[in-house]
Design brief:
The chain contains three helices and no strands. It is mostly helical. The protein has one domain (11-71). α1 runs antiparallel to α2 (47-60). The longest helix is centred in the middle third of the chain and has 34 residues, at 9-42. It is elongated, with a radius of gyration of 17 Å.
Length: 76
């Protein structure tokens, strides 16, 4: 057993289906991010596009946040 580090295989395995769902959401976030970047290049004065790009970046990071949360919830 590896109880001294961050090795929690049960949390990792339980989190895989949810990480897959958030991976799909992150793909949507990538599309939103690309469209937002193109719109911000066309009209840099739009503040709402910047908020849209920031939201898309959080969607892209979603699988990592989900896996970290699941592995932290399962005790060693």
């Amino acid at each position: 057993m590896c109880c001294d580090g961050d090795c929690r295989p049960l949390g990792f395995l339980l989190g895989l289906p949810f990480a897959f769902l958030s991976l799909i959401i992150s793909l949507i976030g990538i599309v939103i991010w690309i469209v937002g970047l193109l719109l911000s290049c066309i009209c840099p004065c739009c503040l709402c596009v910047t908020v849209l790009v920031e939201m898309a970046l959080e969607l892209i990071k979603a699988p990592i946040h989900v896996m970290e949360w699941f592995t932290s919830q399962i005790p060693c």
